[in-house]
């Protein structure tokens, strides 16, 4: 792996900081590459050299938060980490995802709306995790059920529920009820 040049690192940090502010200030689905380049004080060529589109910038910003959650799922204490029954782990996963979305839905909306959601590495990880829990619970067709159980965590669904006044606590409780699907 090549070491990043100092000027490239500075530009990357400026781009990410500017994009984070823009995503937080307005609907992230309306942020353009031109907006980000202007706010960061870099040329569009500099921006496009590293990031092909707005979603890739949002993904870069969201990545560290998702990786921390992935680490907890793999190595953290139960019930989020290994060692708890599948239903408890699914409920804990839902709670952790609600917390992540509550803090970073603006980034998730920029990175994972529509079909882009299914193309991210994080979604693949979440899907594999849910499928493993379903299989551990003895669900015959984990593949068919995984997306159904992940659907409530779509950033646009989460944002819509929050706009309607559904609190994170209510959403977490409702998803814990959904996790009872594994209590068969």
TrEMBL record:
Protein's recorded name: TetR family transcriptional regulator
InterPro entries on file: Homeodomain-like_sf (IPR009057), HTH-type_TetR-like_transc_reg (IPR050109), HTH_TetR (IPR001647)
Cited SUPFAM superfamilies: Homeodomain-like
DNA-binding residues (ranges): 32-51
GO MF terms, alphabetically ordered: DNA-binding transcription factor activity; transcription cis-regulatory region binding
PROSITE patterns membership: HTH_TETR_2
Keyword DNA-binding: yes
Alphabetically ordered keywords of this record: DNA-binding
Top-level taxon in the UniProt lineage: Bacteria
UniProt source species: Streptomyces buecherae
Ranges in coiled-coil conformation: none
Segments forming domain HTH tetR-type: 9-69
DNA-binding found in the keyword field: yes
